[in-house]
Amino acid sequence: MGLERGGQRRREAGAVVTWNLSNQAPPPGTRASSSQAAAGTPAGRARPRVAAVSYLNTVPLVWGLLHGPQRGVCEVHFDLPSLCARELSEGRADLGIVPVAEVWRNGWDTVPGACIACRGEVRSILLVSRKPWDRVETLAADRGSRSSVLLARILLSRRYGSHPAVVERAPDLEAMLAECDAALVIGDAALRIDPAALADPVLDLGAEWLSLTGLPMVFATWSGPAAALARFDRGLLVDTFLGSLDFGLRQMSALTAAESAARGFDPALVERYLTRNVVFTLGAEERAGRDLYLRYAEELQRRPAGPALAMEPSR
């Protein structure tokens, strides 16, 4: 199976990404590598540099790389989704779990088969407002992922007719709402919020997207610059990532126990989130949802009066 580029698949040559890490993904900004080659790793093969997302929703994708048959040798960088994209654009990584907005913006290739997506309520992308949705003028956005920021802007525009200015802030809901009309919180920070306990209205953006389009929402894919991926065997990349995901899904009990302890989450929340909220397979409907999202994103970017995607930096 070839890579996808610009919505089309193509066949090129590439290499297996293998890993040798500790039990849990390290915190953002941590690098991990192994000096001892694993079984099945050909001698002399270049070690791919992989940027991996530090959120809980990435763990099933990399579980086999950490603990299963795909375990091996490479250098890995764990960080926020938007910073993983920076690793690739600056040439400090070859591929990674990348927000689809960044894949589109940079024209990168996608390794097919696995992704981070949802088919309805996602739970980890929450939009909270202290004003009616059609009156939101300012939005404080978690810096973690620009795909989620674009999704919030698309939904506010198409469902409620609002076009807020966006500023980048740390994921502190109370501080964000003290400054702006609405706040977007994503990832593990959103999982620590109980939407039912909030006094302000809240939207789950996965559910909102499904209501608007009837399609899944794809947030991130295994992707990277074509020039970087051209050095590796693409078929083996696909097999490695799909094999790692399959191992993770089959080891969900062990994964849930380890990650709930490491992250301080209720095990029931972790299990429900990873088995009911998040979708990890990039199928035909997911590709259709991704392509529609990118079409809406392009249309939004062309809107003359709309604010730019680039956000005001954190203070």
Provide a quick synopsis of the model.
The chain contains twelve helices and 14 strands. With 315 residues, it is of the alpha/beta class.
Written account of the structure:
With 315 residues, the protein is an alpha/beta fold. The chain has 2 domains: 3-114 and 218-278, Periplasmic binding protein-like II (D-Maltodextrin-Binding Protein, domain 2), CATH 3.40.190.10; 125-215 and 294-302, D-Maltodextrin-Binding Protein, domain 2. The protein has helices at 59-67, 81-89, 100-106, 146-160, 173-179, 187-191, 205-213, 226-229, 234-250, 252-263, 267-277, 284-302, and strands at residues 3-5, 8-10, 30-32, 49-53, 75-79, 95-99, 109-118, 125-129, 138-142, 165-169, 182-186, 202-204, 217-224, 279-281. The strands form 3 sheets. The chain has a 7-stranded mixed β-sheet. Strand 4, helix 1 (59-67) and strand 5 form a beta-alpha-beta unit. Helix 1 (59-67) packs across helix 9, helix 4 packs across helix 7 (205-213) and helix 10 (252-263) packs across helix 11. The longest helix is centred in the C-terminal third of the chain and has 19 residues, at 284-302.
